[in-house]
Every structure is written in C-alpha cells, then in structure tokens.
C-alpha cells in the first residue's frame, strides 16, 4: 500500500479567530481611549510649562553670553511667545526690532492659555534678563491654564531664579 504525502498546508487564521481578536481589541480600546483622552490636557499643560521654562532659561543664558539684555514677550491674544536679544546699546527698548536675534518663538498647544497674574497685566507680558542673568522686570509670575481648569505658575524672582508651581486639582490661586 502506497501512502500519499499531504502536500496541502492549512496556513493562516480562520474567520472566527480573526473576529475574536478584533472583538478583544475593540473592548480594550474602548476602555483605554477615554483614559488617554482625559490625560491629554494635563500633558499639554506640563509640556507647555516645560517649554516656557526652557525658553526663559535660554533667554537668561543668552543675555549673559551676549552681554546684553534678553527679553521674552508673551502675547496673550495670540497665545504665543518670542524670546530675543535686545541689542539696542544703551538701555534697550524692550521691543523686537528687525536687526535683533530671535532666540526662540512658539505658540501654546491647543487648550492651554497664557494668563498674567501681575497687577499691571496687559495683552503682552514681558520678562527681561540683564547681562548678569538678573530679572529686569522684577519678581513676576506667569500663569498657564488648561481647559480642565488646572494651572501652572512660572515665577521669576529678582535674582533670575525660575520656579514652577503646578495645580492639578483645579484650584485657582487668584
């Protein structure tokens, strides 16, 4: 008796196995996606806070390096910021001129707003560091708020130290 070899292979998945895997993945994603979406506003707030602190530190160091004033302007209307070296020889003019070097520019992520908590708050908010890295705007605070009413405060004191205070429970410090 001659035995024949089975040359056919059954490779792949059956339709039932595929449907079971798709069902499991859809159940897992329906549980995970709402949690991920709820984390996004706080992640954006922390990210924006780190970016602003980094920008302020870059401006401070650049002012020392160039032996000039470095200025950071925050525009609350456009939710943006610009850091530059103010190269006007005597005293500076605290404004971005065509010949001045831009250190960094950026905008706030979606859902994050710039708010000044300074008593003389306007739509533009200015920080300045002199050639020694000291704050020329005095001790001041900038507040960022996300759409979940969480806040971060960025404080710059007179010696130019930059500190961050976060509120993740919706507490408003004003």
Let me know the average pLDDT.
83
**Which CATH class is shown?**
Alpha Beta
Shape: elongated
Tell me the major beta sheet: 4 strands, antiparallel
Distance between the termini: 94 Å
CATH superfamily: minor pseudopilin epsh domain
What does this molecule look like?
- With about 170 residues, the chain is an alpha+beta fold.
- It has a single domain (about 15-165), classed as minor pseudopilin epsh domain (minor pseudopilin epsh fold), CATH 3.55.40.10.
- The chain has one helix and eight strands, in the order H-E-E-E-E-E-E-E-E.
- The strands form two sheets. The protein has a four-stranded antiparallel beta sheet, covered by helices on one side. A four-stranded antiparallel beta sheet has the order 4-6-7-8, covered by helices on one side.
Fold topology:
Blueprint: H1 15-66, E1 69-75, E2 80-86, E3 102-107, E4 112-116, E5 124-129, E6 140-146, E7 151-156, E8 162-167
Antiparallel strand pairs: 1-2, 1-5, 2-3, 4-6, 6-7, 7-8
């Amino acid at each position: 008796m001659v035995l024949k070899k089975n040359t056919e292979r059954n490779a792949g998945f059956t339709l039932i196995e595929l449907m079971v895997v798709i069902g499991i993945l859809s159940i897992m994603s329906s549980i995970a996606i709402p949690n991920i979406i709820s984390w996004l506003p706080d992640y954006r707030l922390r990210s924006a806070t780190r970016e602003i602190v980094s920008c302020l530190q870059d401006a401070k160091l650049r002012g020392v390096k160039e032996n000039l004033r470095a200025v950071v302007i925050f525009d609350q209307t456009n939710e943006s910021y610009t850091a530059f070296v103010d190269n006007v020889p005597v005293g500076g003019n605290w404004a971005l001129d065509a010949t001045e070097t831009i250190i960094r520019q950026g905008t706030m992520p979606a859902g994050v707003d710039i708010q000044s908590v300074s008593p003389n708050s306007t739509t533009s908010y200015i920080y300045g560091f002199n050639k020694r890295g000291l704050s020329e705007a005095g001790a001041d605070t900038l507040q960022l708020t996300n759409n979940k009413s969480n806040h971060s405060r960025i404080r710059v004191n007179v010696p130019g130290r930059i500190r961050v205070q976060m509120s993740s429970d919706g507490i408003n410090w004003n």
